[in-house]
Design goal:
Number of helices: 6
Helix content: 25-40%
CATH superfamily of the largest domain: Ribosomal protein L4/L1
Largest sheet: 4 strands, parallel
Strand order of the largest sheet: 4-7-5-6
CATH class of the largest domain: Alpha Beta
Strand content: 15-25%
Oligomer: single chain
Length: 213
């Protein structure tokens, strides 16, 4: 899959039958070397946190229905004074310090995000699971078209990465198990790690190279 020429490595570009049709230059060292597991961990935690809806909520005494009338008069009954039956001390009362809607998302430094993605792709490259296709265009947004493309590339579980203009691809893979297609602008480390192989169209891979270098 790779060779050297001066300071540039080479990656094969496969046609739809899985055969090498051309090569693309890869900056030396970009996808080589040991993976930085800590950066990958930080990026995965960040991705999962940013996906959280943060909608868990409990009702406080102010939001529980009922309890507007004082259950008994303040004095003279011999019982403790009570203002509402929706006090946290009562059955069906409000909750104290329960979860409330919140935003769990946070930003990772750009350098960390870039390093984590580079490490994840380097791991795929080392395992022989990084594939560059000449193109991933489909004539129709049909499942059979996407299945035929994957069969030609000899792939099962795969993340397909292309530009947004390839709308047929994104529609065609929806019913295929273990397969997902993403716009290169939305490529994230979680999807890279969740699939055995990562397949880039040539134009998408060139866009990723610009992001990583």
């Amino acid at each position: 899959m790779s060779g050297k020429e001066g300071t540039m490595a080479k990656l094969d570009i496969l046609d739809r039958s899985g055969k090498a049709a051309a090569q693309i230059d890869l900056p030396e060292g970009l996808l080589s070397g040991p993976a930085n597991d800590h950066l990958i961990y930080e990026a995965v935690v960040n991705y999962r946190a940013n996906q959280r809806q943060g909608t868990a909520a409990t009702k406080t005494r102010a939001s529980v229905r009922g309890g507007g009338r004082k259950p008994w008069r303040q004095k003279g009954t011999g019982r403790a004074r009570v203002g509402s039956t929706r006090s946290p001390l009562w059955k069906k009362g409000g909750t104290v310090f329960g979860p409330q809607p919140r935003d769990y998302s946070y930003e990772l430094p750009k350098k960390v995000r870039r390093g984590a993605l580079r490490s994840a792709l380097a791991g795929k490259h080392a395992a022989g699971d990084l594939v560059i296709a000449s193109e991933l265009d489909l004539k129709e947004p049909k499942t059979r078209e996407a299945a035929a493309l994957l069969k030609g590339l000899k792939l099962d579980s795969a993340l397909l990465v292309d530009t947004a203009e390839n709308a047929n691809l994104f529609k065609a893979v929806r019913n295929l198990p273990r397969v997902k297609a993403v716009d290169v602008a939305g490529l994230n480390i979680y999807d890279v790690l969740a699939h055995k192989s990562v397949v880039f169209s040539r134009r998408a891979f060139e866009a990723v190279l610009e992001r990583l270098t």
